[in-house]
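Reposting from the mailing list since nobody answered there.

I have sequence plus structure tokens for a pair of proteins and want to know whether others read the tokens the same way I do. The first protein:
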Amino acid sequence: QVQLVESGGGLVQAGGSLRLSCAASGLTFSSYAMGWFRQAPGKEREFVASISWIGGSTYYADSVAGRFTVSRDNAKNRVYLQMNSLKREDTAVYYCAAVFSRSSGPKRFSTEFDYWGQGTQVTVSS
């Protein structure tokens, strides 16, 4: 079965950086678009970033554009989220998601993704 396992979360001061990783198994990773979403306490899950199946296209939420970078390594079945200049409002549980797709079109909605990881906590302190 498909498994997505996030890692790399933790506690960081505002202005700092973290790199999240998502390890995928049970799927032909290179045929899947990947996404990152986050959910803060009391808020709905929101889109953060996504990347197409071969990594040629990336998409970002306005709130993270210019600070976060999504990338993938199809040889390692991993997708990454490099987060720089972190702010307190970036505090959330971050989820990795996958959907079978060989299109380069944007995927920004949670309903577009079929598989989800368990999440990793990111806490940004002031």
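The second protein, same order (residues first, tokens after):
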Amino acid sequence: QVQLVESGGGLVQAGGSLRLSCAASGFTFRGYAMGWFRQAPGKEREFVATLTWSGESTFYADSVKGRFTISRDNAKNTVSLQMNSLKPEDTAVYYCAAPGNPAVPAGMLVNPRHVGNWGQGTLVTVSS
């Protein structure tokens, strides 16, 4: 079955950096767009970033553009999120996401309705 396992969360001061990783298994990873979402306390889960199966095209939420970078390694079945210049408002549980089928492009994956599988999440806390 599909498994998405995130790692790399933690506590960091504002202005610092963290790198999240997601190890995927149970499906043909290189054929799927992938993404990252986050959910802050008391708020709905929101799109952060997605990328195409090749990694050549990426999409970012306006709130993270220029600070976060999504990437993937199809040889290792991993997708990563490099987060720089972190702000307290970036505090959230971060989720790795995969669509339910390979026909969902990265541009559609920005909508959580198109996510077929979620990881368990990793907590990122940014202190001021």
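Reply #1 (J.P.):
I read it the same way you do. The longest strand covers residues 18-25.
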